[in-house]
Amino acid sequence: MRAQEQTVLNLIGGLDKVFIIPPFQRNYEWTKEQCEELFGDVETAYKTGKNHYLGNVVYFVGKNSGASYNEYILVDGQQRVTTILLLLSAIRDVVNDDDVIKSINTRYLKNDTGDNKFRVRLKQTSYDSESFISIIDKIPCENKDCNIIKNYNLFKKLISESEVSPKDLYNTIPKLEIVDVNLQIENDLGAVQTIFEKINSTGKKLSPADLIRNFLLLSETADEQESLYQNYWVKIEQTVKNENVSKFARDFLIINTFDDVPGEKIYKMFKSHFTEANASHVSILADMYEYSKYYSWLLFETCPDKKLNRLISKAVALKSEDVYSLYLYCFRNLYEENIDELIKIIKLLTDFMLRYRIVAPAGGGGALRSVVHQILDKINSEEISLTYDDILFELSNSSAISGRFPDDEEFAESLMSFVNTQYARVLLLQIEEFETKNVAIPLKEVTVEHLMPQKLTDWWKENLGGEENATKVHEKYLNSIGNLTPMSAGYNSANSNRAWHEKLPQIKNVQFAITSEIGNILKWTENEIEQRNKDISKRACAATISPLPRTKQIKQRSVSSEFVPGLYPISDISTPMNNTDVTEILFDDKVIKVSTWKEFLKTICAIAYDFDENLFEKIVSENQIHKATSKKNYPSKDPIISRDANLLVTAKEIGNTPYFVEGTISSSRARFYAKQLLDIYEITEAFQINVTD
Question: Are residues 381 and 480 in the same domain?
Answer without folding.
Answer: no
